[in-house]
Design goal:
GO molecular function: monoatomic ion channel activity
Oligomer: single chain
Structural class: mainly alpha
Number of helices: 49
Strand order of the largest sheet: 3-4-5
GO cellular component, one term: transmembrane transporter complex
Protein name: Transient receptor potential cation channel subfamily A member 1
InterPro entries: Ankyrin_rpt, Ankyrin_rpt-contain_sf, Ion_trans_dom, TRP_cation_channel
Strand content: under 5%
Largest sheet: 3 strands, antiparallel
Keywords: ANK repeat, Glycoprotein, Ion channel, Ion transport, Membrane, Receptor, Repeat, Sensory transduction, Transmembrane, Transmembrane helix, Transport
Length: about 1000
């Protein structure tokens, strides 16, 4: 066949005749040389005729393993077996390592031919591929038993090592790793146990046995278990260590959490299994350590717990401590396995801390496993310390608070656990606030000693209460509920009262020196509520009652004093300025006018009106203003106002500058000071009227304007002040945008309406008796004046006839068409659109202010009281503290006139109270209700039952009688409700009249 192939490839008769002549000589040569001689140089791998020149033999390259002689021989053998090398996707591998390729492709006849034809080249049997594997390793890896036998027959070494950088496995290791059972059973036969040890105990270069490799296998669990079981039954040792890590096969199985594998090892080799459980590897880890610590993230929790149960079933002691200080009890508690914990405790397990000092009890606490905590405490109750700390100072309460374990916190507090600080000075409540653990914080509040927990100093927030206000307001609401106790006396309603205990508002501050001073400013807590926007907390009845009480004690009087001081400034400033205008400014202006006439038009001095002007300017008969006492009082009032502004700045800090209204006070002081200084200099002979009265005009405006700001603490009319400033702020924001339109129209009108013209019309000049040049002025001479004119027109002062329509009709506009278009656009955008937009925004702002009026009033009062308390001396503040820390409010207590006035000024009505968080609304009747019995009538009928309820409450008797009466009343109400429903249904069924 090879000869025919050669002749077909050459296609040359001369070559055929020459080979016929040499037939006898070639028959005496070995088969390999016959094959090589039969392949010409021009033959390609696929057997076709190759091209000559630089492109010949393009498909075949010499490999590192085979020389040209072997490549030719291998190619010929492939062709003999019907395989065209050039058609193979992995032809390079087939030529480089033909034996490996034949083994992996299960081409056993090809393998046999290669070994027979290349019998004199025995290096191929032990050749290695790129992975360092010999053909025998490849056969063992893929479980190709026939190829394995063929290779072994041709001299392959069954104990040869892989020449790679890994473990240096023998073929038996490769078979064990891939669970190649056919090869394993061939190497380790069933019958001959004495010869088994040659392969069962074989070690690779890392000192691993086939059992190690089987444990490392990634095959299916069933196949892996079959392989391990076969090795164990034929003498494989469970307690054999490797050289690299010192691991036994049991270490590997426990690390990978192979439960069934561990069970097989324990069942077949029980004695060696127990020995291996106590053996440590190079890192000091036992199989138990690897099973109970390092695989939580790799396997399911259920599998890990099953493995622990299995190890315990095989005799592992429960109280053994791991190399890292861990224990089975700690890990079982961490995973929440209550059944396993009970078994470990019953078996004598002890509490060992790990490397960070964490015990099983702390792990159970962090996981909120209260039942496990109870079991551990029941076992070690006398020796277990509730306040034990780990190496960073965390107690069980710290673990529970950081992990939102509310039930664990309640259990610990019931056992008397103390609230301690960790090494950084943080308490469990600090951690609860930091982690936003509302349930944890609520568990502390639900404790009987909740005030101590809430009032503790805090390193991060100065006080726990302040931190709760900022980040956990719902918990603070629960605290405030506990600060209020309502006692109702139905027999004597006038003795019903509400008791308030505001101790939590006076917590000690945090101090680095551990000397905590009593916190004397409860308004700081309310101030943080206001600054953080916690309106619900400020609306709580406790906070409202505290604000009302402080308002009645000193807030009302201080607000009245502040208002009186501002009124004094306004009155004195107005009196001084108006008197100066009458006695000084007016004569000065008349004299200046007379002087200018005399300079520029002397002939007009003889006119009677000009003489009257001179008389009014020089002989007015009004005495000059010289009231030094008023000026002194004004200066003192200004100092008081400046002091109050400084106090407000000190209390609010940087927030003071965020509210633009606060700048009014400083501008008022500056303008008043400028007016007084200029006024005094003018009295000393200096003519500073230009500055005096300009400062005075600004000062008197700001003084009256500032009164609106001072009205805000008073709820009666302060709401209107808030509305005004809110709408004013909205107006300024809108005008910042519409200023673009104002400039646009000002520039356009400055061009189109620069000046009117006298038209080129005969009729116009016939009917105009006199032409005045002043009639041509339009008010748009410059861009500056045009902007003022546009602003006035925007507010409605259009002067439409004289400024636009008449000039347009008379032809006095140079560009009438474009001027008419721009004027129409202006009318649509500015007076109509802008005004309607401002009205809509103002209405929306007023609705929002009405809805939030109570919240805004409370916020203003909080800042007022906070600023005032920072000015009070310690004794006075202590006195106010004693009056507000605990008190009672009686429902039927008669209020004094001053009390009613103060309440009216605070909230707008002496009867209005927002403690319940509701507002009084007027009942409205549905306009669309076509039924005779309206909503108002139904409410009146239900309201008629109130006297019966009141009478019943006053005549309360023993519980059973009360219950029966209430039941009768409830039945009566239900009957009336049914009757009303029937009437309504009947009316609906009637046809309309």
């Amino acid at each position: 066949m090879l000869r025919r192939l050669w002749r077909r490839a050459r296609g040359n008769n001369a070559a055929s005749e020459r080979e016929d002549r040499d037939r006898d000589e070639e028959s005496a040569l070995p088969l390999t040389e016959q094959v090589v001689r039969a392949i010409p140089e021009e033959i390609s791998v696929d057997g076709s005729s190759a091209q000559t020149g630089p492109h010949k033999r393009q498909a075949v390259r010499k490999s590192k393993s085979l020389d040209s002689f072997s490549v030719k021989a291998v190619t010929a053998i492939f062709l003999e077996c019907g395989i065209v090398v050039n058609d193979l996707p992995d032809r390079q591998i087939a030529l480089t390592h033909p034996l490996h390729w034949a083994v992996r492709k299960w081409k056993n006849p090809l393998l046999q031919s290669l070994l027979e034809c290349l019998g004199q080249w025995r290096g191929n049997v032990e050749s290695v591929d790129e992975k360092g594997m010999r053909p025998l390793h490849a056969a063992a890896e893929i479980n190709n038993l026939d190829a394995f036998k063929v290779l072994q027959t041709h001299g392959a070494d069954v104990h040869a090592f892989r020449s790679d950088r890994n473990a240096g496995d023998q073929p038996v290791h490769s078979a064990a790793f891939e669970c190649s059972m056919a090869v394993l059973k061939y190497l380790i036969p069933e019958s001959n146990i004495s010869e088994d040890q040659e392969f069962v105990a074989a070690r690779n270069l890392q000192g691993e046995t086939p059992l190690h490799c089987a444990a490392y296998s990634k095959k299916k669990p069933t196949l892996q278990i079959t392989c391990v079981q076969y090795l164990l039954e034929h003498g494989a040792m469970v307690n054999t260590k490797d050289k690299s890590k010192g691991d036994t096969p049991l270490h590997i199985a426990c690390r990978k959490n192979l439960i069934d594998l561990v069970k097989v090892m324990a069942d077949i080799r029980p004695e060696e299994f127990c020995q291996a459980m106590q053996m440590t590897n190079t890192y000091g880890k036992t199989p138990r350590d690897l099973a109970w610590k390092g695989t939580i993230s790799m396997v399911t929790l259920e599998d890990q717990q099953k493995l622990m149960q299995l190890l315990l079933d095989r005799g592992l002691p429960c109280d053994i401590e791991g190399a890292d200080g861990g224990s089975a009890l700690r890990l079982a508690a961490e995973n929440g396995d209550e059944e396993l914990v009970e078994r470990l405790l019953a078996g004598g397990a002890l509490i060992y801390p790990d490397e960070v000092g964490c015990t099983a009890f702390l792990n159970a606490t962090a996981g909120n496993y209260v039942s496990i905590m109870r079991s551990i405490y029941g076992k070690f109750g006398r020796t277990l310390t509730m306040d034990a700390k780990d190496k960073v100072g965390n107690t069980a309460l710290h673990y529970a608070a950081a992990n939102d374990a509310a039930e664990a916190i309640a259990f610990l507090l019931s056992l008397g656990a103390k609230v301690l600080e960790d090494s950084s000075g943080r308490t469990p409540m600090d951690l609860a606030i930091f982690h936003r653990s509302q349930r944890s914080a609520q568990a502390f509040v639900d404790d009987s000693e909740w005030r101590k927990h809430v009032m503790r100093p805090s390193r991060d927030y100065d006080s726990i209460l302040l931190g709760l206000i900022q980040f956990l307001p719902d918990v603070v609401s629960s605290c405030l509920d506990k600060c209020m106790n309502v006692e109702k006396n139905l027999e004597t309603p006038d003795k019903s009262y509400t008791e308030y205990d505001l101790t939590i508002f006076y917590p000690p501050e945090y101090s680095d020196t551990k000397q905590a001073a009593v916190y004397m400013a409860p308004m700081r807590a309310l101030e943080i509520m206001a600054s953080c926007g916690q309106d619900k907390l400020l609306a709580h009845p406790v906070c409202i009652s505290l604000l009302e009480r402080k308002w009645l004690r000193y807030g009302f009087f201080c607000s009245v004093v502040i208002m009186a001081a501002n009124l004094a400034v306004v009155g004195l400033l107005t009196y001084i300025l108006m008197s100066s205008v009458e006695t000084d400014l007016r004569p000065y202006l008349l004299q200046k006018s007379h002087k200018n006439i005399a300079t520029h038009n002397p002939s007009a001095l003889n006119n009677t009106p000009i003489e009257e002007l001179y008389r009014r300017g020089h002989n007015h008969g009004v005495a000059g203003f010289d009231d030094d006492i008023s000026v002194l009082f004004l200066a003192l009032s200004l100092v008081l106002i400046l002091f109050m502004e400084g106090t407000n700045l000190f209390s609010k800090g940087l927030r003071y500058f965020k509210d633009w209204i606060n700048y009014v006070g400083f501008l008022l002081f500056i303008s008043c000071a400028g007016f007084l200084i200029s006024f005094q200099l003018q009295g000393q002979g200096r003519d500073d009227r230009a500055w005096t009265y300009q400062f005075g005009a600004v000062a008197v405006f700001l003084a009256w304007f500032n009164l609106m700001r001072c009205c805000r603490p008073f709820g009666t009319f302060g709401i209107y002040s808030i509305m005004f400033f809110r709408i004013m702020k909205t107006l300024m924001e809108v005008l910042l945008f519409f200023a673009l339109l104002i400039v646009a129209f000002a520039a356009a009108f400055c061009v189109l309406f620069q000046s009117q013209i006298f038209p080129d019309r005969y009729e116009f000049h016939q009917y105009q008796s006199s032409l005045e040049p002043n009639t041509l002025r339009t008010g748009h001479d410059t861009l500056f004046f045009s902007g003022f004119r546009i602003g006035a027109m925007t507010t409605g002062e259009l002067d439409f006839l004289s400024t636009f329509l008449y000039p347009l009709m008379d032809g006095m506009l140079e560009y009438p068409t474009l001027a008419a278009i721009f004027y129409a656009i202006f009318l649509m955008l500015m007076p109509i659109l802008l005004n309607n937009l401002l009205i809509g925004l103002a209405v929306g702002d007023m609705d929002a202010i009405r809805n939030n009026a109570a919240a805004l009033r409370r916020e203003i009062q909080v800042y007022l009281h906070y600023a005032l308390e920072r000015l009070f001396p310690a004794k006075l503040l202590k006195r106010f503290q004693d009056e507000t820390i605990s008190y009672r409010e009686y429902a039927e207590e008669e209020k004094s006139l001053l009390h009613r006035i103060a309440t009216w000024l605070q909230s707008g009505s002496p009867k209005q109270s927002d403690k319940a968080g509701t507002t009084n609304t007027t009942d409205e009747v549905d306009a669309e209700e076509p039924i005779i019995i309206s909503k108002r009538n139904r409410q009146m009928r239900l309201k008629s039952l109130e006297p019966s309820l009141t009478k019943l409450e006053r005549e309360l008797e023993p519980d059973e009688l009360v219950y029966h009466k209430l039941q009768q009343l409830d039945n009566a109400v239900q009957e009336q409700a049914k009757l009303l429903t029937q009437i309504l249904d009947e009316l609906k069924r009637r046809p309309p009249a």
